[in-house]
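Quick one: structure tokens for this chain, please?
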Amino acid sequence: MHVTYLFDPLCGWCYGASLALEKLAGLDDLTIELAPTGLFAGEGARPMDERFAAYAWQNDQRIGRLTGQVFSQLYRDRVLGNIGSMFDSAPTTLGIVAVGLSKPDKEVEALKVLQNARYVDGRNNSEMAVVADALDRAGFGDAASRVRSPDEPLLSAYRKRIEQGRRLMAEFQLDGVPALLADQGDKRRSLSSGVLFGGFDLLAAKLQAA
């Protein structure tokens, strides 16, 4: 089975869904395609301000209670507390795309690395330098080098991935991320995002029924 995962790396709910995503990635008979939507990139990016930081932290605590994912005090202090910095998912998405150009089977791992850098280690992965350093530390040296000096093939791949993600969102009339599309043969259908938070047995059952 082929599963498409629509996401944005700065989406707290996508971070909450990462445990389910990891389990899916470990299944032998299933392949996962990451489809970034650029929700918080480009026109979706914004400066961090106190109101948005407070809203994000409140939402993050809800996600943490539901999923068990860690939203650390370092994240609250250094990322949400960095008023005036950018909330922009383009650098992290670029990092994931860069990993995919050389190691396409490692994109889920790269996503985890970059999410943990933000939510656990309190590093602002809206900055290219932070993304490159996190990838370097995780053994993705080639991708880190490309992020530090983005070339046209990387930028072109980034644009195509975002366009594809947005096209799928529109085609399946999805109004938010995370979202899943499941393929079996020539049939493709969307699954409610709730299956990512209801336990792995439920998720597996829904996929089998797809």
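The CA atoms of residues 125 and 131 lie 5 Å apart.
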